[in-house]
């Protein structure tokens, strides 16, 4: 469930958000993430390789916590789950997608960027939400403003987060981890592992762990 998911990601404070340009990239990304010490991957349905990439990562890197991102439809959620995804992330709050994924028992993390959407999520019994797109939706100031109103919600901000601002987000008690695509941009496993180590060093001690 989402509590276990939160416990699993909290020690790292970072969620690599990945768009696979080629299926083979999954291999060097998986290796880079594992070698760098960040065994989490959100593979987005922004590319045609999402489903196969999730399956490849689950098979070749059993230690990796693999989820699906940018999931827009129930059929994408089903494909992700069959491929082995253990969490499903959507950019917005789509009630029928949320209901569908809840029925399957998989963790669903819908995106929100305003109080109405947060309340739709509360109504569904959800307490772990993506805050997206974080920077252009008010960033840290948005989170500080809504947290007193919804103290039960944990936010996973993403969208516009980088090494320049990630510490400001992780310093907030309602933020357990931030998503970002910068972690896996290097073209090699070594490059990704180096970026991951640098990022983990930067956030270590800042996150509310
Ligand atoms: C996401 O889907 O979480 C974001 O698009 C990642 O945003 P970024 O590319 O700005 O890190």
Automatic annotation (TrEMBL):
Pathway: Carbohydrate acid metabolism; 2-dehydro-3-deoxy-D-gluconate degradation; D-glyceraldehyde 3-phosphate and pyruvate from 2-dehydro-3-deoxy-D-gluconate: step 2/2
InterPro entries named among the record's database cross-references: Aldlse_KDPG_KHG (IPR000887), Aldolase_TIM (IPR013785), KDPG/KHG_AS_1 (IPR031337), KDPG/KHG_AS_2 (IPR031338)
One protein family per Pfam: Aldolase
Substrates-to-products reaction catalysed: 2-dehydro-3-deoxy-6-phospho-D-gluconate = D-glyceraldehyde 3-phosphate + pyruvate
EC number: 4.1.2.14
Domain of life: Bacteria
Keywords: Carbohydrate metabolism, Lyase, Schiff base
Top EC class of this enzyme: lyase
Molecular function per GO: 2-dehydro-3-deoxy-phosphogluconate aldolase activity
Complex formation: Homotrimer.
Family: Belongs to the KHG/KDPG aldolase family.
Protein name, UniProt field: 2-dehydro-3-deoxy-phosphogluconate aldolase
């Amino acid at each position: 469930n989402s509590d276990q998911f939160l416990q699993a990601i909290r020690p790292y404070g970072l969620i690599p958000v990945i768009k696979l340009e080629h299926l083979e990239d999954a291999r060097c990304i998986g290796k880079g993430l594992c070698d760098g010490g960040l065994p989490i991957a959100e593979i987005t349905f922004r590319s045609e390789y999402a489903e196969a990439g999730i399956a490849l990562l689950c098979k070749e890197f059993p230690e990796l916590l693999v989820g699906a991102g940018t999931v827009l439809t129930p059929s994408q959620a089903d494909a992700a789950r069959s491929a082995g995804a253990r969490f499903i992330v959507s950019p917005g709050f789509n009630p029928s997608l949320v209901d569908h994924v809840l029925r399957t028992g998989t963790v669903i993390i819908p995106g929100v960027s305003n109080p109405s959407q947060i309340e739709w999520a509360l109504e569904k019994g959800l307490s772990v939400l993506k805050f997206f797109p974080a920077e252009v939706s008010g960033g840290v100031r948005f989170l500080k403003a809504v947290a007193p109103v919804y103290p039960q919600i944990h936010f996973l901000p993403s969208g516009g987060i980088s090494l320049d601002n990630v510490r400001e987000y992780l310093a907030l008690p309602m933020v357990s981890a931030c998503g970002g695509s910068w972690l896996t941009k290097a073209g090699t496993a070594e490059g990704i592992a180096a970026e991951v180590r640098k990022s983990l060093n930067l956030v270590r001690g800042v996150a509310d762990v």
